[in-house]
Amino acid sequence: MVGSVSGLFRDGFEVVETGPGGFFGAVLDGTTGTAWFGVDDSPARIIRVNLDTMQVTGKLELHAEEQRMWCFVKHGHFGYVGVESPGGRLVGVDLDKMERLGYATASKYPLLAGTVIQDYGYFSAGSNPSTVMRLHLLQMQQGECKDWSTCRFEVSLNQGEEAVRAMFPDSDNRHLFLAMYTVPGRIIKMEIPSLNRVSDLELHVGEDKLLCGARYGDVGLFGTATSPGRLIKVDLNTMARTDALTFISGEDRPASLVIYGKYLFVGFGSAWAEGTSSVVKVDIERMRRVSAVVTREGQTWLYTGIGYKSLGFFGTRGTATTKHATIVRLSLDPTFPGVPVPPVYNESGSTWIAVNWLREYPEYHNGGAPVIGARVLLRPAAHHDWTAEHVYGYAAPDPAAPKDRIVRVHEEPFRLSEHGYVARVDGLQPQTAYKFAVILTNEIGPSHRSRSSDAMKTSLASWMELAWAAAAALGTLLLAAVYAAAWRMAPRIDVLYGDRDTE
After folding, report:
1. 25, 150, 278, 395: least surrounded by Cβ within 10 Å?
2. Where does residue 193 rank: exposed (0-12), middle (13-18), buried (19+ CB within 10 A)?
């Protein structure tokens, strides 16, 4: 599968016989380019994939009773899998040898989320209220946990705070943040390693059931399991909500987050009507939807996502008919913008033309990065050379535009943060037809021209319009005067006929 939409490239996929459960959870060794993907099946399974070649290099099936997968974390060359059944079981795996090592019963309830910080694993059990526990993974690996209380410490959250669906630490591993699957969604901040509660943030009404979370510097990004989904931006130091983004219809349940540079790539835990899903690219600083790519038919429910080099890998879910799932590989680097669609809803005067066009996905391909410049080139329709001196230009502002040839500049930088652009070119000739071309520029460079097939014509000069209006007014007055004179001079009917006269 090779294709591209808006600068995100689907450049490969691996078909894995997973059953309808699909992928849930993944861990990465960034030095070797090896990833381990969890398969949410009965029993739960793990596959090892070389991300450089997209080849499966190992498979492991857990015991028959160890069914479904909730969380998957990595410490050294060991992996820890939280399964749904038996509840609370944490299965240890040697990731290099792809061998099951054993298990520990950490709770009576399934471990829904987990993360590793130094030599400790932090997990949350799906009770009501939820509990958060700290496990000493290094001691567990060395067989020093015969007294379970020496390796495990657990605290309870408040009543009603159930189902932690994501957790991650801050930049210096001093605090742990929990994304709650509550109504409305809630974010909890705890100290590390004491697990003392510091503060919490309850989201707005309608921002329900946090399904995923990730950290970008000192900012937390959280996705709601709503239709359409919402992305909430939170200052992790102050626990203050700073921004939010609502996705478009069909982009439901943001479930997996991959950060690359200043962008966030969001995989959705949903399926479009055509049996596809999507990955959306978001500018984190501006909290704006930059571009998107649609998966192939049958590649839905993107609950798993990891980033490696300049690539993103999203695990999909199988269907009742396909009985398999795929790992979709995306290129995360931006490219040149695609050719924009010619503008519509244009206006003109006697000496100016205003060209209007949108830049909303999917009509306008921006190369996977925000557009930072836009320009319009105009030429008289009778000429056919875009490089001649009679080319007019518009920069809004466009850093890639040749400034020595931009002879008409009308800058409105605020337009760049809206959903489109208005390029007004002044100083044109009255009653003259012009053709135009649109060029967009992102951080990589400019797009190819989008040339218009039809010409636009300026109107009459203002003095000619006034002259015609004056002539029309004068003509109207003359006609009115003639009519009035004729009416006054017409004979009266009673003068022509007397009372006794007959026709």
Report:
1. 150
2. middle
